[in-house]
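Hi again,

Forgot to attach this to my earlier email, sorry! This is the prediction with iron/sulfur cluster bound. I've pasted everything inline since the attachment limit keeps bouncing my files.
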Amino acid sequence: MCEFNHGAHSHQTLDPAAAEMLEKANRENVQTVWDRFEQQKPQCGFGDLGLCCRNCLQGPCRINPFGEPKTAICGADADLIVARNLLRTIVGGAASHADHSYMAIHCLKEAAEGKAPYPLKGVEKIQSVAAKLGLSTQGKTDNELALEIAHVALADFGSYSDEPMKWLTATVAPELLETWKQLGILPKNPDREIRTAMHQTSMGVDGSPLNLLLSSLKLGLVDGYAGLQMGTDVQDILFGIPYPIKTEANLGVLSPDKVNIVVHGHMPEVSEKIVEWAKKLDNEAIEAGAAGINIAGICCSGNEVLMRQGIPLAGNYLSQELAIITGAVELMVVDVQCFMPSLTKVASCYHTKVVTTTPIGQLPDAEHIPFTPENADMKAQETVRLAIAAYAKRDPAKVQIPTHKSEAWGGFSVETIVETLAKLDPVSPLKPLVDNIIAGNILGAVGVVGCNNVKAIQDQQTVEMVKDLLANNVLVVATGCTAHALAKYGFLSPAGAKKYAGSKLLSVLTAIGEAAGLNEPLPPVLHMGSCVDNSRIGDLLGALAGYLSISIKDLPVAASAPELQHEKAVSIGTWAVALGVMTHVGVVPPVLGSPLVTKVLTSDLEGLTGGKFFVETDPHLAAEGILAHILAKRKALGI
Ligand code: NFS
Ligand code: SF4
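Structure tokens for the complex follow:
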């Protein structure tokens, strides 16, 4: 396993901790994602352009962008193949998010029925979600109401009517609903939409690229409301609404003398229980000779437990193998999404145990500890004890923990943001924010979200672009692995405001920070959570548009995924453009093989929803494009 002979190539990361671990991997002959990327080069040009199809067994078919063949065996052309592939990508993302939220709903139902050991911590959220769904709250206990909420969510998944999803219609403004209705993209039962889209893209069904693109928008809405919105609402009810909390980020958060457990994946049902039992079993770790138990997070599980528990972040997507390469991780527990199948191979070079927890997310050489909502306490104890037992096998000669770590604040839910602003204006909390936007102290706002992608230098596009935006007084909110990236370089701290924010933005952040009693400015980048928590950004945009009586598409805002890799990032982006938000992507998606699809996504779409994609791999040009967009929106508003 640890016999990989590294060639002479440079590793692509901005992160000094990651670079240090990559050198260690070289010395110890451990293969990483960067090595495998090198081995894949050159990547297939047809695939890169979206021009290959394997949807039936006559294929694979490829279209030559420079000549013949122009049509595939069945007669499909470049536009059709690209549009079909894109829809399948978005289906993949929407299915991942919808399944994630379904698991959370199942947990909520079991918890509300008293069958699962999860006390409902988000009591205020029960009330606000019930109100949004139009449920009467009178005379009902929190548990009764939560159960009713779970049933409304499940009813969306079980609906056989042609009515649009309840969760969607209860969340968005009537004017947006009308736009989506006119376009024929209001989703019904999310499971049915996912099935229909798979059918639509199979051999010999839809031959219309434009019709497929409309379905892509519809599946973007499935992602947005059956995935993100439902997921966040339900998780807040289960685990509590996040409030600002201070922690640290980067591999330096691993402890030299404690049992290190890394939570990785996406489901707080698992990671919250690990955190709970790590605290309860701390003394067992001490008895085993360690100084206690230290938990750190990777990817969105990291964001979830950061937001609610202040657990530090070990690293983002590209750093997952590197955490194990420190030699200091006793156990990494994963659930679903974004964990590399390579983890067990890397772990085999060290003493690290990898634990899988869900029926659909297993790894052949991992320890499988199947979690359910009912058995979560038992399984979490088993997992934590496995980590404690592994501590004795730690090889001090192989331990090297980078010292790099930065202060980072997380937990900026919409509830928190509104509460903080209410300190400035209790009657109309959004007014100070909007007034500052109108006055130009805040030029606009950008949600910078998404992943790392081995095709880009880790964190670099994100960091460079965000620096430019902040210097131009644009407020940034972040989620997902992008939030980790920004955390590592101090953007999520008050000191980051002084370092990166333009003077006007800094004065606003300082005023809000002082009003909130922080004695320091707010961080210039507000960490709003995991990728499902992009719904929080949607909620904030909806609230701002509502306050101003305009549409989201008219706000001086944009979205950006500078280093996206996952199908989920594409489906989230599609939801954002359906909302009317211009969405930058810093890695070129496989659509360039179709001039038609490229034109619709980057231009024509604006006439339908107000949103569009903006593809730019250079971070400075990306920032320029976003700034130009914000200025144009400001001009249109007359501000
Ligand atoms: Ni989002 Fe979060 Fe990270 Fe990308 Fe993966 S963890 S759900 S998909 S890689 S940001
Ligand atoms: Fe080729 Fe058409 Fe079959 Fe796709 S569906 S593999 S393009 S024949």
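Residues 266, 299-300, 317, 338, 450-451, 480-481, 530-531, 565-566, 568-569 surround FE(4)-NI(1)-S(5) cluster (ligand 1) (CB under 6 Å). The chain is about 50% helix and 10% strand.

That should be everything now.

G.
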